[in-house]
Amino acid sequence: MVINVPREARIKSKTGVCHIIWRGSNRQKSFHDDQDWIKFLDILKKYKITYQLAIYAWCLMGNHVHLLIKAGNEDISITMKRMGISYAKYYNWKYNTTGHLFQDRFKSENVETTSYFLTVVRYTHQNLVKAGIINRVDEWKWSSCRSYYGKSCYPRNLLDYELVLRKFSSQLTKARDRLKEFNERKNNDKCLDEH
Questions:
Q1: How many Å apart are CA 72 and CA 26, to the nearest integer?
Q2: Helices and strands (H and E) in the chain: how many
Q3: 27 DSSP assignment
Q4: Order of strands across the sheet with 54-60?
Q5: Is 74 exposed, middle or buried (0-12, 13-18, 19+ CB in 10 A)?
Q6: Mean pLDDT across the chain
Q7: Residue 74: partners with Cβ closer than 8 Å, 6 or more residues away
Q8: Greater confidence, 90 or 26?
Q9: What pLDDT score does 8 carry?
């Protein structure tokens, strides 16, 4: 006899800010080409606008996604489910597959302090560097890093950069320079366990 144990409810963040890792089911690749990355970011932007999310950082990788998000006007779990269904519909149509694309339950951690908030921004941007996939954080175009550095980044107006940059300076140029130094600093940051 199998006994179903209900999932433990997520503890809501006092700040509303969460670091989310969303992995493909069975660690399968979720993105195969530029069209896939673009589609996911378009969906993220659509739900950002619809549910008034704040997006502070992201990095899309082959089989998972890192997001630093502030919940909007609905529970973040519901918004993530909506996004997952939208992207899965596109993916299943494009690749002639069926079923779930992402693991049903994304991993998340609450981000309650300014220092940890900035650590998660850096961790998100350095993920591919630490994995040995790129050499510099601003090489990867499917991350928010380029936008923080004042470079072109798709899609426009997805990133809510003001809060992060204000932590470094009220002057935009100085804030970008200080963030860049912080963002590229060698570290042993440990964030949400993704394994």
A1: 29
A2: 6, 4
A3: G
A4: 54-60, 64-70, 17-23, 107-110
A5: middle
A6: 90
A7: 51
A8: 90
A9: 61
What span, in angstroms and rounded, lies between the C-alpha atoms of 43 and 184?
29
In this predicted model, what pLDDT tens digit does every residue of 77-112 receive, in sequence order?
Answer: 999 999 999 999 999 999 999 888 877 678 899 999
- Predicted local confidence at residue 150, as pLDDT: 94
Do the beta carbons of residue 81 and residue 5 sit within 8 Å? no
The answer to whether 159 touches 165, Cβ cutoff 8 Å, is: no
Kindly give the residue spans of alpha helices, DSSP state H, lying in the chain: 34-51, 76-95, 114-130, 145-148, 162-166, 172-184
What is the signed CA dihedral for 60, 42, 44, 53, rounded to 10 degrees?
130
Taking the C-alpha atoms of residue 52 and residue 73, their distance in angstroms, rounded to an integer, is 6
Nearest residue to 104 via CA among 190, 159, 25: 25
Cis peptide before 155 (omega within 30 of 0): yes
Q: If DSSP codes are grouped into helix, strand and coil, which group holds residue 90?
A: helix
pTM score of the predicted model: 0.90
In angstroms, rounded to a whole number, what is the distance separating the alpha carbons of residues 153 and 74?
A: 27
CA distance 95 to 129: 29
Sign of CA dihedral 146, 106, 50, 101: positive
Which residue's entry shows tokens 């928010």? 144
